[in-house]
Prior knowledge:
two-stranded parallel sheet
Amino acid sequence: xxxxxxxxxxxxxxxxxEWFEFKENWFQPETLGEYVSxxxxxxxxxxKKHAYFIWGIDNATHxxxxxxxxxxxxxxxxxxQNYLARNLSPSINFSS
Length: 96
């Protein structure tokens, strides 16, 4: 299933679940890794193949609003995406 359809399907649900999270522009570099880990553990607990942290969605209305989040922004002298992938095991994947 393509990313766009997954996002639309999740937005159609009444509430967020333990295995997916919506944020508009939230970015806290150290906390994000912990958040991703918690989401993946919840996905496993609920027998989901994937967990999702989705930027650009209004948390209350689930409306697609866009984001200024940039996974390539520099953090600790490297792109944040690389930093996060290097520090999580198994590695994560960003899709757009």
